[in-house]
Each structure stands twice: as C-alpha cells, then as structure tokens.
Amino acid sequence: MNIDFSDMNGGIIQDLPAELIGRNQWSDGNNARFVRAQVSKIVGHTEVFGTSSASSTITTLALGKAIWLNSIDDDNQDPWWVYCDTDRIFATDGVTHYHISYSATSSASQTAPFAATLDYGWNGGNFNGVAIINSHAQLPRYWVPGASDKTIELTASGIFTACRVMRPYKTFLMAIGVDEGAGFNDNVVIWPTAADVGGLPPSWDYSDTTEDAGRVELDDGFGVLIDGERMRNDFMVYAEHAIYRFSPVPSNAIFSIRRIFSEVGLLTRNCIATVRHRHVFFGDGDIYMHDGQSIDSIVTKKWKNWVFSQIGENWRRSYVVANYEHNEVWFCFPVGVDEHPTRALVWDFDDNTFSSRDLIGSTLGGASFMAYGKMPQSGDDSFDTGPDITFDGETEKVFDTTDSEINVRDIVMVSYLDINRFVTLTGTATSIAGATIMIDAGTDFVKGGVLTGDTITNVTTSSSPSVILSVSVNTIACTDSIWTPGNLDDYRIETTTTTLDKSAFFEVDTGLRFDESSYTFHVEKDCLPLGRNGRFSQYDEYQVHAIRPRVRSAIGGNLTVKVYMRDSVGDAPALIDTTTFVIGVDDKVDVRATGTVCTVRFECSDDTDVEINGFGIDYDIVGSRPR
To answer: Which helix (H) or strand (E) holds 348?
Structure first.
C-alpha cells in the first residue's frame, strides 16, 4: 500500500492532538517556513553594519550592549539606523557609526547616562523624517539624521520630566505613562499641539487655552497603560486589561476617547504590529488581532498553550516585529531563564499558518531587539564584507557600490553583545606596540560611570590617543596610562587567538547559517492516517517499508529521515529507524518499522536550502486489534 501527502503547507499545530490536525499540517517543527505548496528550511542571518578587525585603533564607544534599534528612512533619503545600549544612543548609515547622545554644548543635566533598564528598554519611532528616541528615564529626545548631528531634548520641560512610552501619531506625539514631577502616573496620556508638516510640536502646555495640547487620565480599573500605536485614522492605547481608541475630532483638533475592549490587554511594550490596517499583538495569555471593532485570538487551538508555556521569567523583554517581505509577524520571547528572546512564533498572515524559529542563541545573549527597515544593498543582493567600520572617523564604505544600488527592506536583529565589539588583539606584545587607543573623555559613559570611573581603572582623561607600549594577558601599558579590563566582560584583551569578535547586528533571511553557526530544520507528522479509510486508526498494526520524500535543493545536501512507532497514542514514541536521504540522488529511504501509531520526522542540519513539497509512505496493514 502507498499513501501520499501533498501540499504540506498547512503550518504546524502544537496545541491539538496530532490525530486531530489536518492532512496537510505538521504536528511539530522548528526553523521552518511555509511557502506555496511546500515547507522549507528558513534562511539564516548574516552580519551587517560592519565587523571588527585587527585594526590599530580601539574606541571606547564600543563598550556597551545594544538593546533597541529602529530604522529611520523615507523614500527620498538613504537609511539610517538608530540603536541604544542602556546609557547611550548611536546611529549608523551602514558604514560609519556615530555617538549621538548629546551635543558638546548640552547642559550638565543633559549629559548623564540615560539609565534605560532591560525590562523597560527604549521606544519611539519616525516623525516627519526625525527619529524620536525615549528611554523612560529622561525627557524623550529627537534626532535629525546626519553624521554631525546629536540628539536634542524635546521641548516638554515643565509639563513632564519623562514618559514610559512615546509614539508618533499623524502630526502628534503621544506620551504614555508620564512623570509630571511626583513620580510616574502610568494611566496618563499627554499630547502636544499638532506639528506643522516637517516640524516638531510647538507646545506641550495643555493648560494653555490657545494650544491644542491635552491630558487625560485613564484610570478605570483595567490596569496601567503599556503602549500605543496608530490604526488607520485613530490611535490605540493599550492597557494591561483594556484597549482605548483616540479618534481625532476635526473641529478642535483634540480627541474623542473611548474604551473599545475590556479584559484584553498587552503583554509588554513593543508588542504591536500593524497588518493591513489591523493590529496584531502579544496579549497577556493570548495573541490577538483586531480592527477596532472586533477582536479574535489567532492562536487558540493552534499555539497558545505552547507559546505561553515557553515564555520565561524575562517576559517583559518580549517584542513583536512584522516581516513584510515574507508576509509574516514574529512574536519573539525569552525561553526559560534566557535573558533576551531566543525563540519566535512566526505567523504567515497571508496563509494563516504558524511555525517557530530559533533566534540568536542564549550563548550569544539572545536577540535583544529587531526592527524592519531599509537596507543598502548592491545590485546582486549580496553584501561586500569590505573594509572595517569606524566610530566618528573617516573610513571606506562597508558595502560594495560598484553595482547599481537598490533599497531592500528587511529585518535587522541585534544580539545582546557588545555594540561593535572590541577587536581581539592578536600576535605578540612587540607586534602590537605602537597601536593606539582612542579616548573620547567627558561625554561617554561605561555602564553608568564616566571613563574616569572605576569600571576600567587608570584611564587617562586626556583626549589624545594613548599609544600601546606592551600587552600582557590582562593589561595594556600605554604611553600615559595602564589600562586593565577589570571586571568588565565586554572589554577583551588577549594576545593569542585567531578569531575576531563579531558585530552585534545581523540581517535576517540572508545566508545559509546563523552568522557562523549551522542550524537545524525539522518538521514532524505524528499519528499518520494509515487506516483502511485513509484516516488515523489505533486498531490496525502497520509495517512501514519506505519513505519517499519529495525534496528540492539548489545546493544539495542530506535530509535525515526518522521513523517512530508506538502501540497507542498515550505511549512515548520509540525511534525505530534513522536514515540519510541524499537530496538529488535518492528517491526513497528503506525502513522496517512495525507498530500502531506511526510518526515521520525530517531534519536537515547541513548549510543548504531544503524544500519539501510532500512525501509518500509504502506500508502494509499486518494486523488488527479488537475495537
């Protein structure tokens, strides 16, 4: 007998018993993507925005770990990416990285570390081509993209001193959860007078009757406010257990405010994505989609139980990102004790299918954040590794621009590693001697302390470069000081290694590896319907003779085929056979497995592309059980 499974593009269903899912659905899988009539191995991620090298220059700006980034672009300008560690703000055009926290003329009160926390992080957005950047520990700042520009404090002083979240909305900026001088009131929303086209809001003074600024407190028993996002012409504000709609009133440029959903709220900040004028969001115990009128779970009886059993203790660092290039939304979360997200549930909103994927592993800090934006790429869709980037200095371009450039939008993922990590020094002390360490004293901060603090000891306050005289395992002797790493893990001084530290930034859906690591794709179909009527049956005993995968690969490689058997659904599957299927060479794998409940699993850990559009099974019914 033979049974054929075609068009296996129904996604993966985790929450239903395997015997109840559809014929074209899988009962388990990871690192899989469903496209057309097939399931394929996901594409990997590769470094972008430059990589460290054995340069003679080290910069203190490399200290820190990125926890947020955002793309700043429109159709008429080249893309910029803004990113932050807990204390500082940086920007890159993909070639050079700039420290943009403060200007040289900033007052003392505006040069302290931003002190963003890992749980609250950063937020903001794009407003009239300007970056809005908010840490919740100071007044929000804005940045006009440019190599010589620094961030500037918004003119809200005297109205509030900080806000939990700030989001652009049409010609407004919406401050959610504000500190008006007596600590945070997490139920208050303040908005300014509308900005002119291309400008910033002129006033936040809601007490001035000549202005359109306003304030509202939404304290009606549904928890604190968490975040907000535009939906068509309205602005939605999300609380722990409610959603409010702010609708503009044309006659007076203020808002009609109404609670539209109760008992449904947001898990944490940065957990909303817009899909075809609707919001999809990570809720507290479910994942929802709504259009402002009706709301539905998209994961009930599919992935809901699995996802919320996986989310770990650092759930406040979860986030959602839309991958519009592939019609997907990624719900990213930390697993177990992981510090940052290491797993994502992926929803294809065109086909309404689900899968899961690994992010950056916990050994690399996890994927602390992702954002979707415009990438500068060459005409052949590949990055030239090119020369190394620098901070605030002249350098050649990272990307090869000999081909005609195109603008491709994609997700950039930032790992919780050093921002452009320090180069690992190689060779002997003699060969390193003469290299320089650039010091930018006075405005840069290291984990909350200035460069003259105790995180790195004996650092000179001179603005002139220090010249390396000699290097030992943990010490750099310079012309005017001795630098020691102290207890700062990010700062690495080694004299014997052949590898370089890596950049923290990765473009997803590029390459066949996770940076330099291979990864495993698998899909599994349990409780195969091998019964006499083409349905699942526990009353027959089967002997499987062969599995016939229909697999394509442009590169080739191996597919591992595993067959499991058990006597009843309640028993643990027993691995009966593991066979290698050579893609492009074999047409089947021979197996000999006997049992009542059959499971087949396909795996691939090779650095190759894999597309499975179905499989066949050769088998016989060799016995039956009483019903």
So the answer is: strand 343-348
Q: Which residues contact 586 (CB under 8 A, 6 or more apart)?
A: none
pLDDT at 158: 84
* Residue 85 confidence (pLDDT): 83
Which residue, chain included where needed, has tokens 């605030």? 392
The number of beta carbons lying within 10 Å of the beta carbon of residue 605 is 16
DSSP label at 129? T
Q: Give the model's pLDDT for residue 198.
A: 84
Under 8 Å between Cβ of 331 and 275: no
Taking the C-alpha atoms of residue 299 and residue 281, their distance in angstroms, rounded to an integer, is 11
551-to-50, 348, 355, 548, 609 alpha-carbon distances in Å:
36, 22, 19, 9, 10
| Token output for 204 | 């936040």
Give which of 90, 105, 97, 173 is closest to 139, Cα–Cα: 173
- Altogether, the residues listed in the chain come to a count of 627
| pLDDT at residue number 398 | 27
Q: What phi-psi label fits residue 470: left (phi over 0), alpha (psi between -120 and 50 degrees) or beta?
A: beta
What would the two tokens of residue 107 be? Answer: 């007052």
Rounded Cα distance between 8 and 607, Å, is 23
CB 418 within 8 A of CB 65: yes
Annotate 527-541 with b (16+ C-beta within 10 A) or e (fewer): bbebeeeeebbbeeb
| Residue 69, beta-bridge partner list | 83
Task: In whole angstroms, give the CA distance from residue 167 to residue 247.
Answer: 15
Which sign, positive or negative, has the C-alpha torsion 205, 210, 212, 217? positive
Buried b (16+ CB within 10 A) or exposed e, 110-124: bbbbbebeeebbbbb
Distance between CA atoms of residues 391 and 99, nearest Å? 8
Rounded to 5 degrees, φ, ψ at 200 are -110, 160
456's tokens:
């790195």
Q: What does DSSP assign to residue 390?
A: -
Segments of 42-119 assigned E as strands: 45-47, 57-59, 68-72, 80-84, 89-92, 97-99
pTM higher than 0.90: no
153: left (phi over 0), alpha (psi -120 to 50) or beta: beta
Walk me through the domains of the chain, giving residue ranges and CATH numbers: 2-44+519-624 (2.60.120), 429-483 (no CATH)
Residues of the chain with pLDDT under 50: 51-63, 378-406, 419-427, 437-465, 473-474, 484-502
> Are 95 and 384 spatial neighbours (Cβ–Cβ below 8 Å)?
no
Instruction: Give dist(CA 560, CA 553) in Å, integer.
Output: 14
Tokens of 116: 């963003």
Q: How would you label 282-320 residue by residue, b for 16+ Cβ within 10 Å and e otherwise?
A: bbbebbbbbebeebeebbeebbbebbbebbbebbebbbb
Q: Give the Å distances, CA to CA, from 262 to 143, 226, 253, 266.
A: 37, 15, 27, 11
